[in-house]
Amino acid sequence: MKRILLALFLGLGLIGQTSAQGDGKDYGQIHGNFQTNAQYYLRDTLIDPNGNAFPDERLLAAGFLNLVYTKGNFMAGIRYENYQNNLIGLPEGFKGEGIPYRFARYKKDGLDITVGNYYEQFGSGLVFRTYEERGLGLDNAMDGLRLIFDIRPGLTAKALVGRQRIYFQTGDGIVRGGDLELNLNEFRDKASSTNLIVGASMISRFQEAQDPIYNLPENVASAGLRANFIAGDFNIFAEYAYKSQDPNSTNRFIYKPGHAIYATGSYAKGNLGLILGYKYYDNFMFRSQRVGNFTEAMINYLPPLAELHTYALPALYSYNIQSNGETGIQAELSYKFDRGTLLGGKYGTLLNLNFSNAYALNKDFTFRQGLDSSQTISGTDGYQDWAGIGNIQYSQDFNVEVKTKINKNLKGTFSYYNFVYNRSALLDGVIDDLVSDPNNLDMVYVNAAVAEFLWKIKPKHSLRTEAQIMLTEQDRGSWAMLLLEYSIAPEWFVAVQDAYNYGHPDPDLRVHYPIISMGYTRGTTKFQVNYGRQQEGVFCVGGICRVVPASNGFSMMITSNF
Amino acid sequence: MKKTLFFALSLLFALSACDEIPEGEYLKNVEVGGYEGTGHKVFLEEFTGVKCNNCPAANAKAKELQSIYGKENLILLGIHAGNLATTDAKHPKAFNTPEGTELFNFFQLFGVPVGFVNRIDHSTGGIIKGEGDWAGLVAQELERLPVAEITIQEDSYNSSTRELSVSGTVQVTGTINSSNVHLCLYLAENGIISPQTMGDKSVNENYKHDHVFRGSFNGTYGAPIDLSSGNATFSESITLVNNTANGDIAVKENCEVIAFIYDKDTYEILQAQSIEI
Q1: Could you list the residue range(s) of the whole structural domain that residue B189 is in?
Q2: Does B9 reside within a domain?
Q3: What domain count does chain B have?
Q4: Between A212, A218, A255, which is nearest B26 by CB?
Q5: Nearest residue on chain B to A176, alpha-carbon basis
Q6: Is A214–B135 a contact, with Cβ atoms under 8 angstroms apart?
Q7: Which of A94, A372, A455, B26 has the CA that lies 20 to 30 A from A10?
């Protein structure tokens, strides 16, 4: 099969070349992109006493190549992936090489047909979202059939069936679903600043059940209703979703149904922007098979409603969505002070305020005695429906950011962060039904500040600096970091940074994590090499996180597209 | 237009099919200990670690299944391997073995708890299963008819050298579609009290470790056994763990010997047996 696919694309490549010779015929086009990451690991007994980040292979490398052929309404593509073996911290299930992604798609008469692999999302993703995020080692692509039908302008129906990718295989469960969306303005062919978009989506999973203890539902469904109302400067989105009984390894085989609410409202006018958000997720992690680790076979997506921090030290305490239930809010306020005002200064100043929190649900657990005489929630409803806010706090994040131009060659960004971070739940994975006393949880209280300057030294030459400080008496203690990055646009950059964990409770671990990096860009191809010590951290995208272990060594990345 | 819309909505609702289990019927009527098997024994190899907070729950699941089907039908083995099966100040004993680490690497495992049920997951190219899948696979495997019968007996134990010798027989009772059958003999120990990280990340100093893999009599992958005549005998010995440095000393009376035959081409386990010694 792989040979057939490769032969097909080599053939298409020849066609593409023929087209380029300019005989006037349209043979279509081929586009693609390539990426490879490699790291050579050095033994560093200080930061990694057990050798967790010192693989037997010493050198690990992972990469991929996407090829997409398009001609008119037809499109086909493959992705070759190569893990020899996967980098430390990423799922080791990605091992070896192959073509796990291939598809063909065409559009005709209002019908958009995809066979093979595809990514899709209904609404905010509460009911269904498949996507790829290589940084997390997440790829839950569907392998099957998808139809998108434009019934008439403003009214679109989607239907799909297939199985989900798990590493180089597909999961046990069959996923079926559909979505219907109505855009009122498009439907009525009317242009207006007021619009209503409504949608309904459903998804169902079938997986055989042979459990000798539990009567497991083989068909599990989730359905959602959503509405997006836009009126001038206001934009309000809300979605509610319901999931039928889904006893699984994540919820510890409880039978209560799941509920999810996700709502945001925004207002933007002139210099002012305001966003408010609310989330309520109860037993709403949905996988296409009952058992899955980490990011495997996830059917849906729970928006985190928490800011994703990009500076290295604040990012150490990024929020990780809690799959068994949580509730919280987020508020964001941004205001631009005009130039010439007291706070705007000579060039204007942008202020961003952000607050978010998340709590466990107030679950009144139901226990039963297991066959081994232990108390368990498995095989019960688990707890009551519509539980309120519980007494376990998962996180709180308050941060302020000020962006300003100090003079014509110097820009500054100044940030302050205040976190409450439940390390036991968010990093160690302690599930709330195992918590007998919330006071025993490891809570981390953090104050952090970052000052970033971008100095344009001369045309094409700039120096970016980051000074970061993070103060805490818990966890690994306080940190300080300094980064200097010199760029010669658009080709070169060189950067040095040092993160110093000066407040670690163990004096032997008050160590420096220096890294030197260099990058070169030629056209659409980028090369980057790094050498140094990487501190243990958490890498998060969209509320889904993975732990990056401390490591030492050389790394290289090449990206290219055509 | 209306027909199209009706069709699309009907399709959506049809796809939303779900099964509803009434309250009170979540659990099957399980009769503990009353299971009568076919004679085909199931071998569940559970990969675990003393620092793995999800492993006690997985181990409880395995024991729950064994309490349903009985030790005579379901044989358990806890293989401590991987990064979570290492010692530190809170976990002075890790129970990892060279053979367990070799299996962990050979099967390309990348986390615990996971397990093999008769290693059928490997032979079919499937992904090794978490504890939520074990029950279904065990039930499926127990329905198969036996292809062989294994007997084991303790021959001798030298308390000074701590060498244990066993012997036994393999009698073919069905059709074995493989000419590359291997026999493996493993030693397991029950009732080891030693620290284990629990689900809430606390460390239980007095956790009782059962079915702990202590090593192999005849190598990680065993040795070929010739069953062309319909039966064969075996005789092997092992030296019990005696690590005086950290007090990890196997107690002979708590040990059990597990023998199994498997198809070396697929690694699928064809029959197993265990005895307490």
Answers
A1: 36-276
A2: no
A3: 1
A4: A255
A5: B15
A6: yes
A7: A94
